[in-house]
Amino acid sequence: MPHYSPDEATIEAREAAVENLKRLTRMQREAVLLVAIGLTQQEAAEVLGVCTHAVTHRIGRARQRILESVTAG
What we know:
The chain is mainly alpha-helical.
């Protein structure tokens, strides 16, 4: 199996993604990560004990916050 060695751009993108996740609120981060690992928004809502609309809202706010961060920097 070949060893994967990420290039500098990949490493920088990964570090930026981690920093952007850190800037989210805990509730936003939980919603984003649950959906990112493959849960539907409905399933994520069940895990978090909230309605689907709350998850949709949290993900939307997270996207907005990340977009603002990316375009500002």
